[in-house]
Amino acid sequence: MTRIGILTGGGDVPGLNSIIKSVVYRGWEIGWETIGIRRGWKGLTHLGPAGESDAEFVTRLSRENTRAIDRSGGTILHTSRTNPARMKRDNLPEGLDPARLPALEAADERYDLTPVVLESIERLGITHLVAIGGDDTLGYADRLSREGVPLVAIPKTMDNDVQGTEYCVGFSTAVTRAKELINRQRTTLGSHERIGVFRIFGRNSGHSAWYAAYVTSTRCVIPEAPFDLDRLATLLTEDRDANPSRYSLVIASEGAAWAGGTLQEYGEPDAFGHRRPVDVGSALADELRQRTGVETVHSDLTYDLRSGDPDALDQMVATTFANVAVDLLSSGTMGRMVAIRDGKYSHAPLPDPVLGPRHVDVESMYSTDRFRPLYGNRLGMPLLLGPSIEP
Q1: Catalytic member of 159, 239, 352, 369
Q2: Is the pLDDT of residue 263 over 90?
């Protein structure tokens, strides 16, 4: 029996369940079965001796038990930020033979459990793998592909910053939610005559903030363009003075920073080396209050944007990505990522971690003087306005 293993890694986004269901259904149509790996890559590092009977990390998927999962957000397989290639000693699976540790030891007191992952894949009878995630999850998928595992990846992230694709599952819903939440808070900002600062995910890329600003006709600051804090304060004061409702607002990517400033980080690095950034929204609201003398309001929209069910575009893309992934596997095309390229469904090389995330093209998309998206000269641009990626 040909068996697809499927997992979701990293942060959750709306649309993951649509992918899972569609992989199951498309696989069933061609006579393949699907097995769900729970908690991302951790399911393959921590799989118990019971193998596919280990309900903590494995679940059988069928048309019957996935029939209605696409009607809700999140992921029924759960998720984690596990990096099997760089695992801390205190995160190692309890059943791992201590005698194996010297052979698995990597740099910086970390352990590379890739041999364990390969053994788990073989024990589960997985012949093909579908990995759903962002840069970090797909970076490890590239490692497994180089180890000979037949796999196809599906990009998901509300930041829309995975290299090689113009679109990632979860992005449309995030921007739609941001639009709704920001517009809803205009009445409160106007009632109290304040300046609003809305923080949005985007550690290294400003796509979410840029598109949210585009559809709400507001200003934004993004990681790709360090901004002049005094200039921003002046513009927001002018916006407020010119507004009959006496308010103004700005959208801030979590990785945005003003010129001459540094974005501090705190806490222990996660499995992929990321530390938590200090809340730029709160810091920016304080700075603007001091410079303008106007009361500010800071709203953190981050987790609101990734929760709940997907919008129509995300559900359509998720469903199509899943079917394309199974079709690629069935045709013998492995080691690829499903993608949108030149506005069309396509596939691309697995993301190279060295390249980092995909960035907003500041020159063609963003005014660094006005902190606004550029709206002119859009004729001939793709539907989502970003630069096309050649197929």
Answers
A1: 159
A2: no
Hey, is 373 helix, strand or coil? strand
For residue 275, which phi and psi values (nearest 5 degrees)?
A: -105, 165
- Kindly report, residue by residue over 300-343, the tens digit of the pLDDT: 999 999 999 999 999 999 999 999 999 999 999 999 999 999 99
The domain made up of 3-169+310-355 has a fold known as Rossmann fold (3.40.50)
Q: Report whether 104 contacts 32 (CB < 8 A).
A: no
Among residues 78, 130, 140, 126, the alpha carbon closest in space to that of 273 is found at 140
Q: Going by CATH, does the domain composed of 172-306+361-373 fall within 3.40.309.10?
A: no
List the chain domain ranges: 3-169+310-355, 172-306+361-373
Task: Provide the whole-model pTM.
Answer: 0.94
Q: State the SS3 of 258-269.
A: ECCCCCCEECCC
* 231, containing H or E segment: helix 229-242
Judge whether 159 counts as a catalytic residue: yes
